[in-house]
Write a sequence for this structure.
Protein backbone atom coordinates (compact mmCIF):
# COMPACT_ATOMS: atom_id res chain seq x y z
CA UNK A 1 0.00 0.00 0.00
CA UNK A 2 1.45 3.33 -1.07
CA UNK A 3 1.09 6.52 1.03
CA UNK A 4 -1.55 7.84 -1.36
CA UNK A 5 -3.50 4.60 -1.09
CA UNK A 6 -3.17 4.67 2.69
CA UNK A 7 -4.54 8.21 2.78
CA UNK A 8 -7.57 7.02 0.81
CA UNK A 9 -7.92 4.06 3.18
CA UNK A 10 -8.02 6.42 6.18
CA UNK A 11 -10.71 8.53 4.51
CA UNK A 12 -12.69 5.40 3.72
CA UNK A 13 -12.51 4.44 7.41
CA UNK A 14 -13.90 7.85 8.35
CA UNK A 15 -16.70 7.45 5.82
CA UNK A 16 -17.61 4.00 7.19
CA UNK A 17 -17.69 5.35 10.75
CA UNK A 18 -19.96 8.19 9.62
CA UNK A 19 -22.27 5.80 7.75
CA UNK A 20 -22.45 3.61 10.86
CA UNK A 21 -23.50 6.59 12.96
CA UNK A 22 -20.40 6.47 15.16
CA UNK A 23 -19.15 9.86 13.99
CA UNK A 24 -21.15 12.92 13.01
CA UNK A 25 -18.70 14.80 10.80
CA UNK A 26 -18.16 15.82 7.21
CA UNK A 27 -15.63 13.50 5.62
CA UNK A 28 -12.58 15.66 4.81
CA UNK A 29 -11.12 15.82 1.34
CA UNK A 30 -7.68 14.74 2.46
CA UNK A 31 -6.02 12.73 5.22
CA UNK A 32 -2.39 13.55 5.97
CA UNK A 33 -0.23 10.44 6.29
CA UNK A 34 3.46 10.62 7.18
CA UNK A 35 6.25 9.05 9.21
CA UNK A 36 5.44 8.50 12.91
CA UNK A 37 6.57 11.34 15.17
CA UNK A 38 8.36 11.06 18.52
CA UNK A 39 6.73 8.35 20.59
CA UNK A 40 5.03 6.87 17.54
CA UNK A 41 5.49 3.46 15.97
CA UNK A 42 4.74 1.49 12.82
CA UNK A 43 5.29 2.60 9.22
CA UNK A 44 3.01 5.64 9.03
CA UNK A 45 0.90 7.85 11.28
CA UNK A 46 -2.07 10.16 10.76
CA UNK A 47 -3.56 12.95 12.86
CA UNK A 48 -7.02 12.56 11.33
CA UNK A 49 -8.57 12.00 14.78
CA UNK A 50 -7.21 15.33 16.02
CA UNK A 51 -8.54 16.98 12.87
CA UNK A 52 -12.05 15.57 13.40
CA UNK A 53 -12.28 15.92 17.20
CA UNK A 54 -13.83 19.39 17.34
CA UNK A 55 -16.47 18.87 14.62
CA UNK A 56 -17.26 15.45 16.13
CA UNK A 57 -17.65 16.94 19.61
CA UNK A 58 -15.47 14.17 21.06
CA UNK A 59 -11.92 13.95 22.43
CA UNK A 60 -9.31 13.08 19.78
CA UNK A 61 -8.41 9.81 21.48
CA UNK A 62 -12.06 8.71 21.40
CA UNK A 63 -12.28 9.53 17.69
CA UNK A 64 -9.15 7.45 17.13
CA UNK A 65 -10.71 4.56 19.05
CA UNK A 66 -13.76 4.75 16.77
CA UNK A 67 -11.62 4.72 13.61
CA UNK A 68 -9.19 1.98 14.62
CA UNK A 69 -11.53 -1.02 13.97
CA UNK A 70 -12.24 0.33 10.47
CA UNK A 71 -8.52 0.30 9.66
CA UNK A 72 -7.44 -2.97 11.32
CA UNK A 73 -7.86 -5.87 8.94
CA UNK A 74 -7.93 -3.79 5.76
CA UNK A 75 -5.78 -5.42 3.08
CA UNK A 76 -2.25 -4.16 3.50
CA UNK A 77 -2.72 -2.94 7.10
CA UNK A 78 -1.14 -5.24 9.70
CA UNK A 79 -1.84 -3.24 12.88
CA UNK A 80 -2.97 0.15 14.19
CA UNK A 81 -1.69 1.54 17.50
CA UNK A 82 -2.99 4.68 19.24
CA UNK A 83 -0.42 7.02 20.78
CA UNK A 84 -0.35 10.48 22.29
CA UNK A 85 -3.55 12.52 22.21
CA UNK A 86 -4.98 10.44 19.36
CA UNK A 87 -2.47 9.63 16.66
CA UNK A 88 -3.19 6.50 14.62
CA UNK A 89 0.09 4.64 13.99
CA UNK A 90 -0.28 2.21 11.12
CA UNK A 91 1.91 -0.83 10.40
CA UNK A 92 1.67 -2.18 6.89
CA UNK A 93 1.92 -5.73 5.65
CA UNK A 94 5.04 -7.18 4.10
CA UNK A 95 4.08 -6.28 0.53
CA UNK A 96 3.98 -2.53 1.22
CA UNK A 97 7.67 -1.79 0.52
CA UNK A 98 7.46 -3.60 -2.81
CA UNK A 99 4.40 -1.58 -3.82
CA UNK A 100 6.11 1.67 -2.84
CA UNK A 101 9.24 0.80 -4.80
CA UNK A 102 7.18 -0.22 -7.82
CA UNK A 103 5.29 3.09 -7.69
CA UNK A 104 8.53 5.09 -7.55
CA UNK A 105 10.21 3.20 -10.37
CA UNK A 106 7.08 3.45 -12.51
CA UNK A 107 6.82 7.24 -12.03
CA UNK A 108 10.56 7.85 -12.30
CA UNK A 109 11.81 11.29 -11.33
CA UNK A 110 8.21 12.54 -11.50
CA UNK A 111 7.30 10.52 -8.42
CA UNK A 112 5.38 12.87 -6.14
CA UNK A 113 4.41 15.24 -8.96
CA UNK A 114 0.81 16.21 -9.52
CA UNK A 115 -0.62 15.97 -13.04
CA UNK A 116 1.04 18.94 -14.66
CA UNK A 117 -0.72 20.80 -17.49
CA UNK A 118 0.67 20.14 -20.96
CA UNK A 119 -0.22 23.49 -22.48
CA UNK A 120 1.36 26.74 -21.26
CA UNK A 121 -2.05 28.35 -20.89
CA UNK A 122 -3.70 25.46 -19.00
CA UNK A 123 -5.16 26.28 -15.58
CA UNK A 124 -3.12 25.43 -12.50
CA UNK A 125 -5.87 24.48 -10.05
CA UNK A 126 -9.62 24.73 -9.61
CA UNK A 127 -9.80 28.48 -10.25
CA UNK A 128 -7.30 28.48 -13.12
CA UNK A 129 -5.28 31.25 -11.48
CA UNK A 130 -1.59 31.95 -11.99
CA UNK A 131 0.78 32.06 -9.04
CA UNK A 132 2.75 35.29 -9.32
CA UNK A 133 6.12 35.40 -7.59
CA UNK A 134 8.01 38.68 -7.27
CA UNK A 135 11.44 39.24 -5.80
CA UNK A 136 13.91 42.09 -5.30
CA UNK A 137 17.10 42.56 -7.31
CA UNK A 138 18.98 40.00 -5.23
CA UNK A 139 20.63 36.80 -6.43
CA UNK A 140 19.41 34.59 -3.58
CA UNK A 141 15.86 35.88 -3.98
CA UNK A 142 15.93 35.08 -7.71
CA UNK A 143 17.34 31.57 -7.10
CA UNK A 144 14.74 30.83 -4.41
CA UNK A 145 11.94 32.15 -6.65
CA UNK A 146 13.23 29.98 -9.51
CA UNK A 147 13.20 26.88 -7.27
CA UNK A 148 9.77 27.72 -5.86
CA UNK A 149 8.45 28.04 -9.41
CA UNK A 150 9.85 24.62 -10.32
CA UNK A 151 8.21 23.04 -7.28
CA UNK A 152 4.88 24.74 -7.90
CA UNK A 153 4.90 23.61 -11.52
CA UNK A 154 5.57 20.02 -10.46
CA UNK A 155 2.35 20.28 -8.47
CA UNK A 156 0.43 21.42 -11.54
CA UNK A 157 0.52 25.19 -10.99
CA UNK A 158 1.02 27.92 -13.52
CA UNK A 159 3.70 30.32 -12.32
CA UNK A 160 5.00 33.71 -13.41
CA UNK A 161 8.20 35.08 -11.85
CA UNK A 162 9.10 38.76 -11.90
CA UNK A 163 12.02 40.60 -10.34
CA UNK A 164 12.89 44.22 -9.68
CA UNK A 165 16.21 43.65 -11.40
CA UNK A 166 18.02 40.80 -13.11
CA UNK A 167 21.62 40.27 -14.27
CA UNK A 168 22.00 38.21 -17.43
CA UNK A 169 25.02 36.36 -16.05
CA UNK A 170 22.75 34.75 -13.47
CA UNK A 171 21.08 32.69 -16.20
CA UNK A 172 24.36 31.41 -17.58
CA UNK A 173 25.93 30.80 -14.17
CA UNK A 174 22.99 29.43 -12.15
CA UNK A 175 20.32 28.54 -14.70
CA UNK A 176 17.72 30.97 -13.31
CA UNK A 177 15.24 32.91 -15.37
CA UNK A 178 12.44 35.37 -14.80
CA UNK A 179 9.38 36.17 -16.87
CA UNK A 180 9.55 39.91 -16.37
CA UNK A 181 11.75 42.65 -14.88
CA UNK A 182 10.39 45.74 -13.18
CA UNK A 183 8.02 46.73 -10.37
CA UNK A 184 5.62 44.25 -8.83
CA UNK A 185 2.63 43.44 -11.06
CA UNK A 186 -0.74 45.06 -10.42
CA UNK A 187 -2.27 41.86 -9.08
CA UNK A 188 -0.86 41.15 -5.59
CA UNK A 189 2.08 38.75 -5.99
CA UNK A 190 3.76 36.42 -3.52
CA UNK A 191 6.90 38.27 -2.46
CA UNK A 192 10.02 36.14 -2.28
CA UNK A 193 12.49 37.92 -0.02
CA UNK A 194 14.92 35.56 1.74
CA UNK A 195 17.83 36.78 3.84
CA UNK A 196 20.49 37.82 1.27
CA UNK A 197 23.71 35.87 0.91
CA UNK A 198 26.67 37.45 2.73
CA UNK A 199 28.99 36.90 -0.23
CA UNK A 200 28.91 36.24 -3.96
CA UNK A 201 28.11 32.51 -4.49
CA UNK A 202 28.92 32.47 -8.22
CA UNK A 203 32.54 31.25 -7.72
CA UNK A 204 31.09 28.01 -6.26
CA UNK A 205 29.61 27.01 -9.60
CA UNK A 206 26.00 26.30 -10.44
CA UNK A 207 25.27 23.23 -8.31
CA UNK A 208 27.11 24.19 -5.12
CA UNK A 209 25.90 27.79 -5.33
CA UNK A 210 22.26 26.80 -5.72
CA UNK A 211 22.56 24.33 -2.84
CA UNK A 212 24.20 26.96 -0.62
CA UNK A 213 21.33 29.36 -1.32
CA UNK A 214 18.46 26.84 -1.15
CA UNK A 215 19.38 24.43 1.66
CA UNK A 216 18.89 27.00 4.47
CA UNK A 217 15.37 28.23 5.23
CA UNK A 218 14.55 31.63 3.77
CA UNK A 219 14.88 33.32 7.17
CA UNK A 220 18.38 31.86 7.74
CA UNK A 221 21.54 33.46 6.44
CA UNK A 222 23.27 31.10 4.01
CA UNK A 223 26.92 30.17 4.36
CA UNK A 224 28.95 30.83 1.23
CA UNK A 225 32.20 28.91 1.38
CA UNK A 226 34.29 26.09 -0.02
CA UNK A 227 32.60 23.60 2.36
CA UNK A 228 29.94 23.19 -0.32
CA UNK A 229 32.61 21.89 -2.72
CA UNK A 230 34.17 19.39 -0.33
CA UNK A 231 33.99 15.77 -1.51
CA UNK A 232 33.47 14.33 1.95
CA UNK A 233 30.64 13.15 4.21
CA UNK A 234 30.50 16.41 6.14
CA UNK A 235 29.07 18.11 3.04
CA UNK A 236 25.30 17.37 2.77
CA UNK A 237 25.26 18.06 -0.98
CA UNK A 238 28.07 15.54 -1.49
CA UNK A 239 26.17 12.89 0.51
CA UNK A 240 23.03 13.39 -1.55
CA UNK A 241 24.84 13.22 -4.89
CA UNK A 242 27.08 10.38 -3.75
CA UNK A 243 24.08 8.28 -2.65
CA UNK A 244 22.50 8.87 -6.05
CA UNK A 245 25.69 7.98 -7.92
CA UNK A 246 26.16 4.84 -5.79
CA UNK A 247 22.62 3.68 -6.63
CA UNK A 248 23.38 4.08 -10.33
CA UNK A 249 26.68 2.24 -9.95
CA UNK A 250 24.84 -0.66 -8.32
CA UNK A 251 22.57 -0.93 -11.37
CA UNK A 252 25.60 -1.09 -13.65
CA UNK A 253 27.36 -3.62 -11.43
CA UNK A 254 24.25 -5.80 -11.24
CA UNK A 255 24.00 -5.80 -15.04
CA UNK A 256 27.59 -7.06 -15.19
CA UNK A 257 26.53 -9.89 -12.86
CA UNK A 258 23.56 -10.72 -15.07
CA UNK A 259 20.59 -9.49 -13.05
CA UNK A 260 18.32 -6.47 -12.83
CA UNK A 261 16.03 -4.84 -10.28
CA UNK A 262 12.67 -6.38 -9.44
CA UNK A 263 10.49 -4.98 -6.63
CA UNK A 264 9.78 -7.50 -3.92
CA UNK A 265 9.92 -8.06 -0.16
CA UNK A 266 13.07 -6.76 1.55
CA UNK A 267 12.94 -8.15 5.10
CA UNK A 268 15.96 -6.13 6.25
CA UNK A 269 14.94 -2.89 4.52
CA UNK A 270 15.68 0.17 6.71
CA UNK A 271 12.36 1.55 7.92
CA UNK A 272 13.85 5.04 7.92
CA UNK A 273 14.51 4.75 4.20
CA UNK A 274 11.06 3.39 3.38
CA UNK A 275 9.43 6.14 5.44
CA UNK A 276 11.51 8.85 3.74
CA UNK A 277 10.71 7.53 0.26
CA UNK A 278 7.03 7.25 1.07
CA UNK A 279 7.02 10.78 2.46
CA UNK A 280 8.41 12.33 -0.72
CA UNK A 281 5.04 13.31 -2.27
CA UNK A 282 3.99 15.02 0.97
CA UNK A 283 7.29 16.91 1.13
CA UNK A 284 6.86 18.19 -2.43
CA UNK A 285 3.30 19.29 -1.72
CA UNK A 286 4.36 21.05 1.50
CA UNK A 287 7.31 22.74 -0.22
CA UNK A 288 4.91 24.07 -2.85
CA UNK A 289 2.30 25.20 -0.33
CA UNK A 290 4.81 27.00 1.87
CA UNK A 291 7.01 28.26 -0.98
CA UNK A 292 9.91 26.51 0.79
CA UNK A 293 12.35 24.57 -1.44
CA UNK A 294 14.61 24.16 1.61
CA UNK A 295 12.19 21.45 2.76
CA UNK A 296 13.12 19.41 -0.29
CA UNK A 297 16.85 19.93 0.29
CA UNK A 298 16.63 18.72 3.88
CA UNK A 299 14.43 15.79 2.83
CA UNK A 300 17.01 14.70 0.26
CA UNK A 301 19.67 14.68 2.98
CA UNK A 302 17.40 12.43 5.08
CA UNK A 303 16.88 10.06 2.13
CA UNK A 304 20.61 9.91 1.43
CA UNK A 305 21.52 9.33 5.07
CA UNK A 306 19.01 6.48 5.28
CA UNK A 307 20.14 4.96 1.98
CA UNK A 308 23.92 5.06 2.34
CA UNK A 309 24.22 2.31 5.02
CA UNK A 310 21.86 0.08 3.00
CA UNK A 311 23.58 0.33 -0.39
CA UNK A 312 26.58 -1.93 0.45
CA UNK A 313 24.13 -4.80 1.17
CA UNK A 314 22.59 -4.84 -2.31
CA UNK A 315 24.97 -6.94 -4.43
CA UNK A 316 25.86 -10.60 -3.88
CA UNK A 317 28.97 -11.20 -1.81
CA UNK A 318 31.68 -13.77 -2.35
CA UNK A 319 30.28 -16.84 -4.06
CA UNK A 320 26.62 -15.82 -3.66
CA UNK A 321 24.40 -16.18 -6.69
CA UNK A 322 21.97 -13.35 -7.53
CA UNK A 323 18.61 -14.13 -5.96
CA UNK A 324 15.16 -12.59 -5.66
CA UNK A 325 16.35 -10.86 -2.49
CA UNK A 326 19.21 -9.19 -4.38
CA UNK A 327 16.84 -8.06 -7.13
CA UNK A 328 14.47 -6.60 -4.54
CA UNK A 329 17.30 -4.79 -2.73
CA UNK A 330 18.50 -3.38 -6.03
CA UNK A 331 14.99 -2.13 -6.80
CA UNK A 332 14.89 -0.34 -3.43
CA UNK A 333 18.32 1.19 -4.09
CA UNK A 334 17.15 2.37 -7.52
CA UNK A 335 14.03 3.87 -5.95
CA UNK A 336 16.19 5.84 -3.52
CA UNK A 337 18.36 7.08 -6.37
CA UNK A 338 15.28 8.05 -8.36
CA UNK A 339 13.90 10.15 -5.50
CA UNK A 340 17.28 11.84 -5.03
CA UNK A 341 17.56 12.61 -8.75
CA UNK A 342 14.02 13.99 -8.92
CA UNK A 343 14.52 16.20 -5.88
CA UNK A 344 17.84 17.58 -7.11
CA UNK A 345 16.28 18.34 -10.48
CA UNK A 346 13.55 20.38 -8.80
CA UNK A 347 16.26 22.38 -7.03
CA UNK A 348 17.98 22.97 -10.37
CA UNK A 349 20.98 20.84 -9.37
CA UNK A 350 22.60 18.13 -11.50
CA UNK A 351 22.43 14.51 -10.34
CA UNK A 352 25.43 12.85 -12.01
CA UNK A 353 25.56 9.08 -12.47
CA UNK A 354 29.31 9.13 -11.82
CA UNK A 355 30.90 11.04 -8.96
Amino acid sequence: MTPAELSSTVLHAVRRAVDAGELDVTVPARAVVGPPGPGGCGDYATNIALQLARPAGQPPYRVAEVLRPYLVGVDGVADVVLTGPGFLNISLGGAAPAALVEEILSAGTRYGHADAPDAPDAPDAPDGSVVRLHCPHDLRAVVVADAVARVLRCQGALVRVTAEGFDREWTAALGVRVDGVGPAPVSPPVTVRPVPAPADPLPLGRDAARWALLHPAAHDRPRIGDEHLAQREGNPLFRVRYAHARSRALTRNAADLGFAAEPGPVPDAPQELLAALGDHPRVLAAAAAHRAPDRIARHLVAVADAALPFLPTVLPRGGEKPSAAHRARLALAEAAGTVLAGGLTLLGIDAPDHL
Q: What stands out?
A: Residues 116-127 have pLDDT under 50 and may be disordered.
